[in-house]
Amino acid sequence: MFFSFPLISYSCRIRIMAEALKNVIAQSLECPVCLNTFTDPKILSCSHTYCKTCLDNLLGCHGNDKMLRCPVCRAETQVPNQDVSKLPANLALKSLIEDMKNQFQFCSNCKSEDEPQAVVYCQDCCKFFCSTCHNKHSQWPDFISHEVLVMSEIVSGKVSVRRYRKCRKHPKEDEECFCSDCRRFACFRCVVMEHTKEGHGVIEAAVYESSHMKSIEDLKSKADEKRSCFQKYIDFIDEQKEHVSNVQKQCTDDINKAFEESVRQLTKRKELLIVEVKGKTEGVEKELDEMKKSAQERMTHLTTVADMVTNRTKVPSDMDALAAHDTICQDLQEALKQEDADYKQPRRSSRKGKSVSFNRNVGMNELALGRIVNAVAIKNLALPTKNSMIALVSTPDGRMAVGCWTGGVEIFSANGQLQQTVLKHVKIRGVGFLSDDRYVILDRSNNITLYTLEYTKLNVMFETLSQDEGGFPGLTVDGDDQIYVSYRKPAKIQVFSPAGGKAIREIPCDGFHPNQITSCNDYLVIRSHDAIRLIDKQGVVKYELTELGSFPYAAVSQGNTILIAKLKHDVGLVSIDKYTNELKHIQALVIDYKIEKPEREWHYLQQYRSGEIAFCTADRLYIFHWK
């Protein structure tokens, strides 16, 4: 039996083969993500290619991640600086796409060998038509509703051609089937040869596409719903942000109003304080002016009379001249008999003026600025044991404990009354108190001993440095019940636990010697010969005052400020100033107060809980208060 096949010219066969090849190539030029012809194709490290825009979108889905996962093989590619444009371009594919765009598309319907150029493409017929065929096609009643694309728009990229897939193994065959197990499209011949084994689920490509489009629509619907939820959430955040912004604006307005009101109040308070301090000092200035005027009058009288006597160039000869000269000489002698200037009177008056100070509100009601006060020494007490004071510390119940190197701790009230003397048998070097009110005593042998409230010695041993090793020591206890002992010779501080034993750590004092030591929150206040330093508990100097002159003494006052007493030992004058905990000057409290010059140059400064300031010399206790 013979079969007859229609005769096809060689050129037609060539054209058919070229058309099939073009369809295969066209499928290879589609991006797997957007399914359109590649635009600026970029290659990943796994050799798969995608549009740059598609890769930008994929990278954006992962936030700040610098790794891009291939949608096909899941391999990761590092994106330099999250910039997809720095990935290598697929130059060969890019060139092929340009070549395909520049190729003429011939009519798929013409039987002639002239190969007329196509002007449109019918999406439903899947054919290119020349102008003649397009006119005929548009007149067919069944094809009027077909979607027709103009070639110029296809070439320019404005529209995309929906192509039926052609089998790579059988280019003339459409891939009309889909194997759900192999996840690939296939033509009918491939299905018969490769997808009939058990387990292969083959369905029509149109059915799969319909199902796939439905799943896409479902996903899109869910994505729209989720996006709507996020939009509501974003709108809610914007609403909350607006509320917060309104609160900020309202608070800012309130703060500005409060500030302006505070400025008015502060200005008024400042003016009142200035008037008050003027009233307290003008009387003193007037007294001093009167003393000055009287002294100047006496000096003028003396000068005039002396000049009249001593500036004469002739000796008086007649009786009148001699009488006048004798009278003037007598006046000069009377002037010379007057008492010398009395320094005590202006000193007493100036002391009244110098006792006036401005007590600034630090850590309290700053708006009130403070108050004008007069510093008055209400007590000037001789210590029971002369030349014996070695330590001064506030007691837990608000009194003042004076340690004596000859033995004992003397307890004074804020009004200067000696209330009791304890531990008379212990020769004191330093005194401190733990939070449970136990005494911490450093004796003259540099040993630390703990005593109960009833003055019972506790069996707790501390391994301190001897006097030969450490020299003269100092003692303080901080709020965490850690005991600090400073040593002059090695210039260091040992830290002990109340449990006793060896020092738990040491703090170096680089470049200075710790003569006196006081605890202040997270710092230690160190007094050297001519400086006050605040160091942290690792030994780092945080703040220092080095221009105070000789003999400065420091104490921690109420409100965690620092009191510093400066002593002019040669003339017996003490001044006390208040500083911040950064050693910035706040105010003068006592100015050049006259004290009795002590035998020994050793002093201490402390403050009672009730506010009085105690300044102690080796012989006497001075207690200052304000009114």
TrEMBL record:
InterPro entries: 6-blade_b-propeller_TolB-like (IPR011042), TRIM45/56/19-like (IPR047153), Znf-RING_euk (IPR027370), Znf_B-box (IPR000315), Znf_RING (IPR001841), Znf_RING/FYVE/PHD (IPR013083), Znf_RING_CS (IPR017907). Residues 31-74 form the RING-type domain. Residues 102-151, 162-205 form the B box-type domain. GO terms for cellular component: nucleoplasm. The keyword Ribosomal protein does not apply. Coiled coil: none annotated. The keyword Zinc applies. This is Uncharacterized protein. It comes from the Eukaryota. PROSITE patterns: ZF_BBOX, ZF_RING_1, ZF_RING_2. It holds the Pfam family zf-RING_UBOX. One of its GO terms (molecular function) is zinc ion binding. Keywords: Metal-binding, Phosphoprotein, Zinc, Zinc-finger.
